[in-house]
Structures are given as C-alpha cells and as structure tokens.
Specification:
Length: 319
C-alpha cells in the first residue's frame, strides 16, 4: 500500500513550496495572536453583532456548498479554499482564516492531513466558542492522515457530510429543523445521478488502465473500478517531492505507448513535470480529462461531479 504522507518537501526548487512545512507553525501562531487581539478589542458582544443566520465556516468550498444547500437562507457560510486556480496543498492559514473561525457555530473541514492548518486554528480558538460543532469529513468515513485526502471524490463521503451538517443545523437552530431535514433529503436525492453515472461507467470500463498526474480523482476512479497506474508519481506531485527517474519513465512509457486509456490531469497541481506529461499525452493522442480540487464558481457540487464524470466518459469512449 502506498501511503499519502506529506513527505519532506524537496530542498531545491521553488521556495514558496519547499518552505511550506517550516513556515506553517509561525503562520498559525500569528493567526492565533490576531484572534486573541481581536477578542480583546471587541469583547464577546461582537459574536452577536451580526444577523441571526448560523455562521458556518467550511475549509473547502464544496463542503460550504453542501451547507448552503441544506441551510438555505438560515446559514451564513464562509469557505476558505475557493479558488480553483490555486493548489490547496500549499495553502497557509492567515489571520483572516483565524478571524473567520472565531464566531463560527458550525465548522466543516476535510481532515486526513489535507487541511492541517484547520486543526491547529481550532485547537487554539476552542475555548472561545464552546458551542461550536465541528464536522470532519475524514472522521465520518474512517480516513486518517496517510490516506488519500481527496475524500470528496469518494461517493461515500458527501452523504455522510450532508447528514452531519443537517444534524448540526438542527441542533443549532431547532426552529427550522423541518427546513433542514427537507433540504437534506433533497440533497441526498440529488446525488443519485452521480451514483448512476459511476455505476454506468463501471459497467462499461471496469478494469481499464488509466493514469493521473495527481491523486485527486483516486476515490472516484476506484469507485468506477478503473486500473489507476503510476501512483507513486502522483504522490510525488501531490507532496511536492521528486518523482524517481524510473517512475517518470514508466509514466512516459504509458503515454507514449498508449498503455492507458485516459490521462486525468489535475489543473490545480501544475508544474513543469505534470505539464510535460499533459503535453506527451496530447502528442501520443491519449485522451485527457481535466479535474480540479476546488469546486469551480457557478456550479454546485453535483453539477461539478457530473460534468467531470461526463468528460471522463467521453474520454474513455475515444479509441
Ligand atoms: Zn490534491
């Protein structure tokens, strides 16, 4: 088994990436200091100054979207990771992140070491919001650090997160329980086309060899039953470590000799090597499918997943 540990970043290459591990702790400390300073300035009354909507912070915008779909007009959601042009693995918490968390009644994050800054910030601000409900997707589906952290691509994850969100909103605002329960039922029903699409792809393409530049689509690929190749290369891309020469050669051979049906390309983890693989796939006429880690603007979670499954289906149908 390959473990999805965040390996030690390489020491050469881009400083912004290689210093991530070293800089996270001070950044979190300064964010926490900012929260404490704010608390001293405005006091506890500031917590109730806003409207009556339930304040929710989601570390990732697809979880924020689920909260909005279930909470409707009764939630005020802030999503921290929401830019599909940035690499979430490189995110560092800022004082703004800490401030957003300060008054949250409900917090949702991924866990499994995808957003370790969240755990640290919550630990530091726990005493200020004793009523805060914290939903960790990884805990709901039994994943831990070292597992593939892209849990929202696992069809099991969102139903579990949605149920937990529904329960948290019910508890925070019992007056609107019937609304939350109805919205939860609607949301769960709206996932059915995704399951149907996965089942249809599985029936047609189970066991087909594919590859990817980064493991973002891994759980979905597993659900479809695809034979995902070059996992070590993908982990190196995710962790920003060097892929070995033999792993690079194996990846290139798969593309050049068309041993894979599709290249799944994470457009949020683009560096010279992954871009080179994309170019090689295009040259070798291996169909490519672009996927993102972060939900794009203008679509909801269900539309995002379905669109990606549709483009995968089209790519697999090419021969
Ligand atoms: Zn990733």
């Amino acid at each position: 088994m390959l473990a999805f540990h965040r390996a030690t970043p390489r020491t050469r290459a881009r400083p912004a990436r290689s210093t991530r591990a070293a800089t996270l702790a001070p950044v979190v400390r300064s964010a926490v200091a900012a929260v404490l300073a704010l608390g001293a300035l405005f006091g506890p009354a500031a917590a109730h100054a806003a409207d009556t909507a339930i304040t929710v912070v989601a570390a990732e915008n697809f979880y924020g979207d689920v909260v909005k779909q279930i909470g409707g007009a009764y939630v005020n959601v802030t999503s921290i990771l929401s830019n599909p042009d940035q690499d979430p693995h490189l995110f560092e918490a800022s004082p703004k992140t800490a401030r957003a968390l300060q008054h949250a009644r409900v917090v949702v994050y991924n866990g499994a070491d995808y957003d370790p800054w969240m755990t640290k910030l919550l630990g530091a601000t726990a005493s200020q919001s004793s009523q805060r409900a914290v939903i960790v997707a990884a805990d709901l589906v039994g994943r831990k650090p070292g597992d593939n952290p892209h849990l929202w691509y696992d069809p099991q994850t969102m139903p579990a997160v949605a149920r937990a969100v529904g329960a948290a909103l019910d508890a925070a605002d019992p007056a609107h329980k019937s609304v939350y329960d109805a919205n939860l039922a609607t949301f769960l029903g709206s996932l059915k086309p995704i399951d149907a699409k996965v089942a249809a792809l599985r029936a047609q393409y189970k066991g087909q060899p594919v590859t990817a530049t980064e493991p973002v689509f891994g759980y979905m690929s597993d659900a479809i039953g695809l034979d995902m190749r070059n996992l070590r290369f993908q982990l190196a891309a995710m962790n920003d470590t060097e892929a070995s020469a033999s792993d690079i050669a194996a990846f290139e051979r798969d593309l050049r000799e068309r041993r894979v049906r599709v290249l799944i390309y994470n457009s949020q983890a683009t560096e010279a090597l992954t871009r080179r693989m994309l170019g090689l796939a295009q040259q070798s006429k291996v169909p490519t499918v672009s996927v993102t880690e972060t939900q794009p603007a203008g679509v909801n979670f269900q539309q995002w997943m379905l669109a990606q499954l549709d483009s995968l289906g089209k790519a697999l149908a090419t021969r």
